[in-house]
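Memo subject: From amino acid sequence to discrete backbone structure tokens
Keywords: amino acid chain, backbone geometry, structure tokens, three-dimensional fold.
Body of memo: The sequence and its backbone structure tokens, given next.
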Amino acid sequence: MRLVERSRGPEEVLAFRSKVWGGLIGAFFTPVGYPLAVLLNVPVMWRVPFAILFGVTTGYIADRIMHGVSDATGEAFGHFLQPRGRTTPYAATYSFEQSLAARGDVAGALRAYDEAMLNNPEDPEPRRQAAELHLRAGDSTRAAELFSELRRLAGDDRSRELYATQRLVDLYLGPLAAPGQALVELRRLTERFPSTHEAAAARRTIARLKSRERSEG
């Protein structure tokens, strides 16, 4: 003899509750079935069976509706908690590398990012995070290399491509002091994203750089 009963799972609990409510609703509607039978001119001998059948049918329909709603709600909630399938592919966050950087172990974090890039050669995200960390660590050259790789891996992700190009412009205009390279990236930005605010700002920057070149020449 079992001393401990098996606990019911969530699906069993939902099924049990829907049956209970279905039974209560059926019991409620059974008395309603008799006047309905009178209204429909059901013969007297069939009015009680009609009322019982009406109550049972109503309860069964209520049970099926509540069970279906519970299943749909549970499935939707499950998808919300654990999205899956082709529409929501898994995306690595590289939280381990981030935790090393947050603890001040920049060298360890960069080594971990190098390993992540080696293991995930087509994933742009570790390059983005590593590039920003190299930049904070003062290695602007390596940061520029990684931003270039990030853009190459961006594919159809226009926002990531724009982000990488802007970061390259910042580097060439800033710590790398390479205005010629900055002009190349600025022109690329205006060609790839012609109708954006970023392109308008890039055109103004190009004009300033050209004006500076003329005044220095």
In short: The first helix runs from residue 10 to 39. Residues 95-216 form a domain with the Serine Threonine Protein Phosphatase 5, Tetratricopeptide repeat fold (CATH 1.25.40.10).
